[in-house]
Amino acid sequence: MLGSRTDLHIFDAGSVNGTRYCNEILLPYVRLFRGAMGLQFLFMDDNAPCHRTVADEQLLESEDIERMDWPARSPALNPIEHVWDFLGRRLAARTLPPVTIRELRLALQDEWAAMPQLLIDTLILSMGRRCETYLAVRGDHIPY
C-alpha cells in the first residue's frame, strides 16, 4: 500500500488453495486494511485459481470488501508482478545466492525489507496510467 507495507508473507510448504488464501491473506491482512481504510478500499488481486474460490468470494462479501474487476492475462497491470521481478533480480544479483529453502526465505525477507518504499508507491500510483493504456489498446499487448 502507499507509504507502508506489511512484512513479507511466505507460505509454508504445500499448495496455496482457497482455504489457505482466506486464512493466511484475506483474514489477517486484507480485512485489516479494509477496516483501516473504510469505504474507499478497493481490493486488487489477480485471477489465480486460489483467489477465485467460492470461499474467497463469500469471505470478501461478508466483510464488504469490493474486489477490482480484473481482465484475464494482464500481469503488466498488477504492481505486485513488478515487485516480484525486483525481488528476483535482487536475489540473482547476490554474490552468494541462496541454496536452501531457509536461505531463500531469509534472502527474500532481507530484500523485501531493503526495497525502497518509493518503488512500491510509484508502482501503485502508476495504476491509473496502466489501466488507461490497457483500455486504449483494447486489452492487447502494452508496449513497454
Automatic annotation (TrEMBL):
Gene3D superfamilies: Ribonuclease H-like superfamily/Ribonuclease H. InterPro entries: RNaseH_sf (IPR036397), Tc1-like_DDE_dom (IPR038717). The gene is tc3a_446. It holds the Pfam family DDE_3. One of its GO terms (molecular function) is nucleic acid binding. Residues 46-94 form the Tc1-like transposase DDE domain. The lineage of its organism: Eukaryota, Metazoa, Ecdysozoa, Arthropoda, Chelicerata. It comes from the Eukaryota. It comes from Trichonephila clavipes. This is Transposable element Tc3 transposase.
